[in-house]
Every structure is written in structure tokens, then in C-alpha cells.
Design a protein that fits this description.
alpha+beta, Pnp Oxidase, Chain A, seven-stranded antiparallel beta sheet, two-stranded antiparallel ribbon, 14% helix, binds flavin mononucleotide
Amino acid sequence: MHKLKKVKLEKALTFLEPGPLLLVTTFDGQKNNVMTISWSMPLDFAGRFALCTGPWNYSFGALRKTKECVLCVPGPQLLKTAVQIGMVSGEDTDKFKKFHLTARPASRVRAPLLEDCVACVECTVEKFLPSYGIFVLQAVEVWQNSSCADPRLVHAVGDGTFCADGEKFNFRRLMKEKLPPGL
Ligand SMILES: Cc1cc2nc3c(=O)[nH]c(=O)nc-3n(C[C@H](O)[C@H](O)[C@H](O)COP(=O)(O)O)c2cc1C
């Protein structure tokens, strides 16, 4: 007997779910679209990220075709909208109109920035790994909204619940040799 108890396999996600929750905008040549993504991860210190999605989403086609997107980071005030955005498809819904989103032109890609987000990262698609639905992205421009009233990042637990960043711990001195230059 010890403190660890086996739980069902599905629970793994709720412990490992990464963050923060993202709103991923695309422009397919005709219209802007946005989807919600909780499966993303950084790959290096040089602005490379991965996200996971598939052909059942409308955004997938735009990502494959244009090889561009913007990763927008919503704060808690946009969380409910972010969930709603992830429940409808750009195939039949203009989500910018439906959810009153403010799109602003990005500088390096045609997909739009979302003004009410904490930050927006313009990205190009470097690679697509079809067997896993993984897009490898390269950040080309980063925007931060310093006037956001609540700039906490939100994280999906994976079971329909979410949390916002809370207490901060500063281990910068201990990690000095591992921190990327400039941060
Ligand atoms: C909280 C949340 C997280 C989501 N995370 C992902 C994800 O990581 N990958 C994915 O393919 N779909 C994810 N989805 C589902 C898509 O956002 C959803 O299918 C969306 O309607 C796709 O929009 P589109 O068809 O306009 O591209 C998520 C939905 C929600 C509500």
C-alpha cells in the first residue's frame, strides 16, 4: 500500500494537459476564422511551437493551404467565449460576427490578431506531421496587450474545467543557466 492509486487511463490528460488555452486564427483566402486549441507545446527557445488538430476542423484546411496562423492567448474574461468558439465551426458560422471579436491586421501573416487577447503570436507553418495531426509552427511576430485588465493565462484541465494562473514562484536565480537569452 502506498499513496499512489491507479486511476483510469482517461485521467492522464487531466494531469498533463498543457496550456495556455489558445484561440488560433486563420484566413483561408476568403474569410477569417478562429478555433480553440488546448493541445499546444513549445519546442525550443527559438519560437518554434507545435499544435495538434485534424481535418474535422475547418481551420485545418486553412492551416494546410496558407501555412499561416496567429496563436492568440485569451485571459479569463474571454474564457467563456473561447469555449463557445470551440463548439461551432467556421464552415457555417462567422465566429467574428457571432462572438463580437475585434480582428486587427497582423504584420507578417494574413490571419488576424484578436485585439482583446493578452498576447498574439503570428506564426508560419514549418511542417505538418500527418500521422499525429501535429503542426510545427515558427513564430514570426509577437504582440502583447499591456492594457488587459486581467492578464492571467487560462488552462484547460481536459475535463471541461479550467483554471487561471495563480500564485507565482520565482526561481530565476536557480535556473539562470537554463533561461533563454533576453528573458
Ligand atoms: C476548450 C476547448 C479546447 C479545444 N482544443 C482543441 C485542440 O487542442 N485541438 C483540436 O483539434 N480541437 C480542439 N477543440 C475543438 C475545436 O476548437 C472545435 O472543433 C472548433 O469548432 C473548430 O473550429 P473550425 O471548424 O472553425 O476550425 C477544442 C475545443 C474547446 C472548447
